[in-house]
Design goal:
This is Bridge-like lipid transfer protein family member 1 C-terminal domain-containing protein. One of its GO terms (cellular component) is presynapse. InterPro entries: BLTP1, BLTP1_C. The structure is a single chain. The chain is α+β, with helices and mostly antiparallel strands. It has two domains: about 400 residues, no CATH class; about 50 residues, no CATH class. The chain contains 13 helices and 15 strands. The protein has a 15-stranded mixed beta sheet that branches. The longest helix is centred in the first third of the chain and has 42 residues. The N and C termini lie far apart (about 80 Å).
Length: about 550
């Protein structure tokens, strides 16, 4: 019997896309040495809105989705190969019939063509392999705009007399994601029957992403064209302006630990019951405000509402708030310089210049319960390790931040003259005295070993020029009252962010900005491919240039 691996529902979904084309008079503004010139701009603007977005996952969700993908890929590949064998068998039988009736000359031509066919197919496969390797290599280096820039160079449009410039065209776009609620339940186990789970709730979230890519002349080679990319990400909570000003000390985002008090797991049949079970203890999520077909059917059968729209909190759950965030706004800007050729392992990694600024309207409230921190830490690590186990990544092969490597090297150098016992404790914890480490030290080291995402290698170095993260943090006592403020750096270190100035921008670049940049690049590429070069206009323009030159 099958089991659910992912539950998701969204209400009032609204998606819109629009393109924007701008061209300047190049005769009056052309200047190849002007670094700010923008002879043409092509943008794609996307807007994604919703009311409520609720998602339930477990430790095996990513693994099961990958298995589904591999199974489907294997199935369609086998179907494609079997179809090719059937058609090739039909073709061979037809060729035999024609050869028997057409004479020896036709048979000789058929045999000659059959002898040449494998070499052609091999060449095609090798070309496809090179192309696939090139695409994978560009994906590893996150070179999303090179192909699009090559497509728009000198492009002729039916609505414009002059073609697009050979270089200097600015490509990019914006992506807006906004809603009333985002709810995520991460169960601490392989299915939704686990006894505890983490609940991430966001109220009035808004994500605004913008990217621009332009070819510029390289400083090393005047004939080569590098790509300069500027990306900005703005994330806000409770600052959309759609609702009246929030009262003081209202939490706009919470991270909670939820535990089931009963021994036996639930046995539900409808999605409404499952989502009510997972999110009912959170006031931010407003799970019973979600449109439900089952509830509306029950109300219509009873002749009226059978229960309140906001039921009481489930008594079988224990909820503990780990973090409570106020209204805030976060700005991250990154600049990328990508060389004309893809760098290899021996080349210097490109540098990503970052600027990170945050604004908080109130305090951040944090629990004083260390067990809640360890629960959240173990939950994240278990998800990462489960994915790596299926993907085949050994723990030692995971990429780590440069600061961690430098710090470990410094500890090794400083402890080289000391005793062997201290070196084994301060190292990776693999010596005979590793068992003497405290539980907190073991958890911190295990988090450092697994702090990166699924990318095995990131061919970029990060340098944060501007860093502003200074919220006021207050701790929540057992009675629910706040006590003396605490430093945010200490909280981040306890969570494993020993170098937050580099780790946080790097995670946001990999987790949010890279995928959104890829989506916009694909959308612009598809739009340009639809508006192909008109052969009639191209021939007319070439004839005009020929007549003018003669």
């Amino acid at each position: 019997m099958g089991t659910g691996v992912l539950m998701c529902r969204v209400s009032s979904l609204n998606v819109s896309l629009r393109d924007e084309w701008k061209m300047t008079n190049r005769k009056s503004s052309i200047d190849v040495f002007n670094p700010t010139r923008r002879p043409a701009m092509i943008f794609m603007h996307g807007d994604l809105g919703w009311d409520q977005l609720q998602l339930m996952i477990s430790k095996s969700t990513t693994v099961d989705l990958l298995k589904m993908y591999y199974k489907l890929d294997e199935f369609f590949s086998q179907q494609f190969k079997s179809s090719k064998r059937v058609f090739s068998a039909l073709g061979n039988s037809r060729n035999k019939t024609n050869s028997n009736s057409g004479g020896s000359s036709s048979s000789f031509r058929k045999r000659s063509h059959a002898r040449k066919k494998p070499s052609v197919g091999l060449g095609d496969r090798s070309t496809d392999g090179i192309g696939n390797a090139w695409v994978a290599q560009d994906a590893k280096h996150h070179r999303h705009w090179q192909r699009v820039l090559a497509q728009v160079a000198g492009l002729h449009l039916s609505t414009v007399r002059q073609p697009l410039p050979a270089s200097g065209t600015v490509l990019g776009g914006t992506m807006e994601l906004h809603g009333q609620n985002i709810s995520l339940a991460c169960f601490h186990g392989i299915n939704f029957k686990s006894k505890s789970w983490a609940l991430f709730s966001l109220k009035e979230p808004c994500i605004s992403f913008a990217t621009e890519a332009q070819e510029v002349h390289s400083n090393e080679n005047a004939e080569a064209l590098d790509v300069h990319i500027v990306q900005t990400l703005t994330f806000s909570l409770g600052l959309t302006g759609e609702q009246p000003h929030a009262p003081e000390h209202q939490s706009m985002a919470t991270v909670c630990k939820v535990s089931r008090n009963v021994l036996f797991p639930p046995q539900f049949r409808t999605l409404q019951e499952w989502f009510h079970y997972a999110f009912s203890c959170s006031d931010i999520d407003e799970v019973d405000r979600f449109p439900s077909v089952e509830r509306e059917r029950a109300e219509s059968n009873e002749g009226g509402p059978v229960r309140s729209r906001t039921p009481k909190q489930d008594p079988n759950h224990t909820r503990e708030v780990i973090f409570a965030l106020p209204s805030l706004q976060l700005h991250l800007k990154t600049e990328h310089w990508q060389a004309a050729s893809t760098p290899d392992a021996s080349d210097e990694k490109p540098m990503v210049e970052c600027s990170f600024v945050t604004e908080f309207e109130d305090h951040i409230f944090v629990t004083v319960d260390a067990e809640a921190f360890f629960f959240l830490h173990d939950l994240i690590i278990s998800y990462i390790r489960e994915k790596d186990r299926v993907m085949g990544y050994p723990p030692s092969a995971r990429a780590q931040s440069p600061e961690l490597a430098e710090r470990r090297q410094a500890r090794t150098d400083s402890g080289s003259g000391g005793e062997g016992t201290s070196r084994s404790v301060e190292g990776d914890g693999t010596g005979d005295n590793a068992a003497n480490l405290s539980e907190e030290e073991k958890k911190r080291k295990s988090f450092e070993h697994g702090e990166v995402t699924g990318h095995t290698k990131d061919w970029r170095n990060y340098h944060c020029k501007t860093w502003h993260l200074e919220p006021t943090v207050r701790l929540l006592s057992w009675g629910g009252k706040s006590i003396e403020p605490y430093g945010v750096d200490y909280i981040l270190q306890k969570l494993g962010f020993s170098h937050a100035r580099t780790t946080i921008p790097k995670w946001m670049q990999r987790g949010f900005m890279d995928p959104l940049d890829k989506v916009l690049a694909v959308l612009v590429l598809r739009m340009v491919q639809i508006i192909r070069e008109d052969p009639k206009i191209a021939e007319h323009m070439r004839q005009r240039r020929y007549n003018g030159s003669s």
